[in-house]
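Notes from hallway chat w/ T.B., transcribed later so I don't forget. T.B. wanted the structure written out for a chain they're using in a teaching module, and asked if we could keep both sequence and structure tokens in one place. Agreed to drop them here.
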Amino acid sequence: MQSQIITTSLGGELISYKLNGEERIHQGADCVDEKGKPYWKRHFPVLFPTVGKLKQNKTIINGKTYEMSQHGFARDLEFEPVTKLDNFHSYVLRSNPSTYAKYPYDFSLYVTYKTYENELTTIYKVVNEGDSNMIFGIGGHPAFKIDQKALLNGEYYLEFEQEEEKVHFLYLIDGLIGTDYAKNILIYKRRIQIDKNTFDNDAIIIKNMTSHKISLKQRTGNKTLLTMDFEGFPYLGIWSKPGAPFICIEPWYSTADTLTSSGVFAQKSNMISLPPKKEFECKYTVEFF
């Protein structure tokens, strides 16, 4: 199998993955609705140093209030290219005056894309370049192409590799996590049906999963389109614009603020605390069929 990737320094983002010449990644601003309006302008952004929305788009770090938009700032900044080979693209974002205005830590954030045959691995590495513990969240937001007609016909579903007995679904209210769990929508304890109404109330957010693999499947022909291995990530976000010809399967280390959040960054759930001069690394792999 022949794979080809195209990336950009803006956000250190993957913007194309072709397998045997066929595009498998949502094409951002080039993918438009019947009115010519893009469904979603991004492709494969990295979410850092927060995942999801902050209460009032503000957070308190070391006693000082900072403003930060949803999913952090990394996806909108220019990264520096590190390595660019046919099957290996790597970028780095280093802390600078524009990041200090939103987030007071010294860091280096590396984003790497590696392909081998029909597998695509995304690797995030965070280095604490400062002299105090660094608090952050991180996650992926990859968008995969699907056929719009098949979506409208209810063809697609997601399936965990094993039955999920302890899983919880989080409920979003204006982008923040509600105090009660959402309804468990699993079918046969494994499947999530995907159709034009699945995302009417924003993203599906899942935690307490036993599986570390999930597959996107199509009913006709009982086809597996892709399988993601997200081992190590405590949350999985599933999202699209209602009726749009793509689906995002998002492995996250943390999530949005809750409705009752204190606003203190370090008190958010599942935040990573990285000691001075240490590194944190995580990865997820997608196998395409």
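Follow-up for T.B.: The mean pLDDT is 97. Might be a good example for the class.
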